[in-house]
Amino acid sequence: MIVQDHSRHIAIITMDNQAKSNALSRSDLRELGELWLRLQDGPYRSIILTGAGEKSFCAGADLSGDLSA
């Protein structure tokens, strides 16, 4: 994940896994959740979630990793 702060009140989170159409692994989902909680407690009025590249926003879950609970 890449976080950019374009102003005092706007944070942009970019999912950057273009090789897998920005699919999210279990660790990516955990990181995104922790990041979201941290940012929402900050000075931001808006949090924008976007995907890197031009092909897709996010393919969903990356099922190629460990799927055990």
TrEMBL record:
SUPFAM superfamilies: ClpP/crotonase (SSF52096)
A Pfam cross-reference name: ECH_1
Database matches in Gene3D superfamilies: 2-enoyl-CoA Hydratase, Chain A, domain 1
Name of the protein: Enoyl-CoA hydratase
Native organism: marine metagenome
